[in-house]
Automatic annotation (TrEMBL):
This is Peptidoglycan D,D-transpeptidase FtsI. The active site is at residue 302. GO terms for cellular component: plasma membrane. GO terms for molecular function: penicillin binding; peptidoglycan glycosyltransferase activity; serine-type D-Ala-D-Ala carboxypeptidase activity. Keywords: Carboxypeptidase, Cell cycle, Cell division, Cell inner membrane, Cell membrane, Cell shape, Cell wall biogenesis/degradation, Hydrolase, Membrane, Peptidoglycan synthesis, Protease, Septation, Transmembrane, Transmembrane helix. Its EC number is 3.4.16.4. Belongs to the transpeptidase family. FtsI subfamily. The chain crosses the membrane at residues 21-40.
Length: 574
């Protein structure tokens, strides 16, 4: 084999030399192709384009990405994106000969002509190259402007968010800004899922900057992913309508309501009042956007009393047959606990039916602080419900190591602890599903991976039976009844906190209930803030709205009645 000497004086085989020459040849061919392409684009193609029109050129433009839909649990669209056009102008390119075209353009866009001309002159004098004339307009309107064929006026394809249900789901969904970026609600909380990735394409533009031909896609736009919620649009509408009626009838400051699936913690509806329409947000303050059911916290009042009774029974601190003396007042150190009336001696059922502060205080004081606090903590008080909603409340629950003696008493009748409507509804799953507390979710799932037992099954069922008496004519929530169904629930009438104490004339009217009581399917929690029409008790203000929403939900889902034998009695008492 012949040996040659390479450039550095090292021996090389003839095979190696041949391979190196072939590689050099391939590189030269590739470089020639690239140079040829560049010459074509920069010289030949440019000349060709110029032959076809004044200053035609190749440009790279962005391709907008489609934002993912938000759907309810049945696939009904709650938020969709529709294609629109935006119009902008390069003031430096406007020609004097085309000034007369500004008059019809201003009319088409609803832009005061004098104002438009003044703005264009200002931008041109400042040597600006970009000014939006209108964003996200109907393509038909944009087409009329395009027909005017004005040099320096450009058109950009975008997407505009539309909410088919309008105000019904506004507080939950939130909205996007004009650049299609989530600003509130689920749109903001799940921006990383919904937002797509824009692409790029090479196009041919004419001398006026209009795209006349697509050349090639450089990078495909990646659409955002759809978001499927647990919300049922049918139940959402029912809840919205009845909550709005409750607020108006009671001349309330605000109101909020949550509907849960008692078996798995799915949020079927969440509404707040006053409402806002995300399709039309002109002249609305940010206060109207707030989802009160998720982000506001309040003291739940007597709605926590069932948990006190359940905790004491479960821990063996009281007997199911215990009788408790009340007699109108109970002294605890220097503090006095009072009831609205002197209820005398009460069994556990009547403790809840009459909502006795004195009785529930005595029950609470039988339990060690650590155990009592532990039950409240397991129920989720003091911890965010974790549904991924921006700004959702955690509420407050003071650590038992910092309690004074009276703190345990006030906690037993719902003061000194705060919660959101969602958290309160969630806590009731521990009574509705035979002692199992469910996590709550806004995103559709197959099962609850975080369910945990808080009470024994027999304890939850016993307390649920007691809560049915709250709905009786002798109880505090007779207006919460639903014909044909057994209902269990608890009222709360809470004085609002203020600096230095509590108000004497401002209340929260609260009700939480479940049905059918024999095997609950739904839980509804409702809060009406500052009713001013005369009534303020939870059983008179919140319970009627609960009844109507629950009746509708049971009907929509075809839940079998469990109280048919009492239907005629309910009808006769109306």
């Amino acid at each position: 084999m012949r040996i040659t000497t390479g450039a550095v004086g090292l021996p090389q085989s003839s095979d190696f030399v041949i391979r190196r020459r072939m590689l050099l040849t391939l590189m030269l061919v590739a470089m020639s192709a690239l140079i040829g392409r560049a010459v074509y684009l920069q010289v030949l193609d440019k000349e060709f384009l110029q032959d076809k029109g004044d200053m035609q050129h190749i440009d790279i433009v962005p391709v907008p990405a489609y934002r993912g839909q938000i759907q309810d649990r049945n696939g009904e669209p709650l938020a969709i994106s529709t294609p629109v056009q935006s119009i902008w102008v390069n003031p430096r390119q406007l020609k004097d000969a085309e000034q007369d075209k500004l008059t019809p353009m201003a009319k088409i866009l609803g832009y005061p002509e004098k104002e438009l001309r003044a703005q264009l002159k200002k931008e041109k004098d400042a040597n600006k190259r970009f000014l939006y004339l209108r964003r996200q307009i109907n393509p038909d309107v944009a087409e009329k402007v395009k027909e005017l064929d004005i040099t320096g006026v450009y058109f950009e394809r975008e997407f505009k968010r539309y909410y088919p249900a309008g105000a019904v789901s506004g507080h939950l969904l939130g909205f996007t800004n004009i650049d299609d970026v989530g600003q509130e609600g689920m749109e903001h909380g799940y921006e990383h899922i919904l937002r797509g990735q824009p692409g790029k394409k090479r196009v041919i533009k004419d001398g006026k900057g209009q795209i006349i031909k697509d050349v090639e896609n450089i990078e495909e736009a990646v659409p955002g992913r759809d978001l499927v919620l647990t919300i049922d649009e049918r139940i959402q509408y029912l809840a919205y309508r009845e909550l709005q009626n409750a607020m108006l009838q009671n001349k309330a400051h605000s109101a909020s309501l949550v509907v849960l699936d008692a078996k798995n913690g799915d949020v079927l509806a969440t509404v707040s009042q006053p409402a806002f329409n995300p399709n039309n947000r002109k002249e609305l303050s940010s206060n109207r956007y707030r989802n009160r059911a998720m982000v506001d916290s309040f003291e739940p009042g007597s709605t926590v009393k069932p948990f006190v009774v359940a905790a004491a029974l479960d821990g063996g601190y009281i007997s199911p047959n215990v009788m408790i003396e009340t007699h109108g007042a109970y002294h605890l150190g220097r503090n006095v606990v009072k009831d609205v009336h002197n209820y005398g001696t009460l069994d556990l059922t009547h403790v809840l039916q009459k909502s006795s502060n004195i009785a529930v205080t005595q029950i609470a004081m039988t339990m060690p602080p650590e155990y009592f606090w532990g039950i409240y903590s397991k129920l989720g008080f003091g911890t965010s419900a974790g549904v991924g909603f921006p700004g959702e409340a955690s509420g407050t629950l003071l650590d038992y190591q910092n309690w004074h003696e009276f703190d345990q008493a006030t906690l037993s009748f719902g003061y000194g602890v705060s919660t959101s409507v969602l958290q309160l509804a969630r806590a009731y799953t521990a009574l509705a599903d035979d002692g199992v507390l469910h996590s709550v979710t806004l995103l559709k799932r197959d099962e609850d991976p975080d369910a945990q037992r808080v009470f024994k099954p027999e304890t939850a069922r016993r307390v649920r039976d007691m809560l049915e008496h709250v709905i009786s004519k002798e109880g505090t929530a007779y207006q919460a009844r639903v014909e044909g169904y057994r209902v269990a629930g608890k009222t709360g009438t809470v004085k609002k906190a203020m600096a230095g104490g509590y108000t004497e004339d401002k209340y929260l009217s609260v009700f939480v209930g479940m049905a059918p009581a024999s095997n609950p399917r739904f839980i509804i929690a409702i809060v009406v803030d500052e009713p001013t029409s005369g009534q303020y008790y939870g059983g008179l203000v919140a319970a009627p709205a609960f009844s109507r929403v629950m009746a509708g939900a049971l009907r929509v889902y075809g839940v079998e009645p469990d109280g048919v034998d009492t239907m005629h009695l309910l009808l006769s008492k109306r």
